[in-house]
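Sample intake sheet
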Amino acid sequence: MTFGLLIILISTLGCAEDVETVSKVSSTIANQGVIDEYNVYSSQYKIRVDAFNDAVNNWNVKLTAYNDYIKLTNDMSYFKRTSSTTQNEISLKASEVRSAGRDVQVQCSVFETHINDMLAFMEENKDSLMNYDSQMYMQQKSFLVEQKTRCESIDRTVDNVINELE
């Protein structure tokens, strides 16, 4: 509770005719607490989505390098393509893709957990958030569901690629 709102609340408590004002101030204070907590979730979301996107970008770089090397080996002679040096390089690049993929899966799990927590918070505080900004509430909820679906889709794709490389 901020000091200014506390003064307003205390100064209105003595007036019987201002019961409605006290109720509105109390509601505003409660809503502000919900909004503040929502803003914390939002700032944490930014951190989580950045980490997830960085992991996906890193995985894409590793996967592209692997695919490019496989294309290169297809143009090699049989002797060079089957040499231990080439096979070790393929194995190393596959290992890098699997490692980056596992990082994507970890970041996806953390990101998805945060989305679920945020959606649960929004549902629990639906009235306060709708009173604050109903359009923002609906858009944010829809956006979070889309991001969760995106995360799940990427996770499945990564899992399929990792399984093929093992």
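Comment: The mean pLDDT is 84. The two ends are 56 Å apart (CA to CA).
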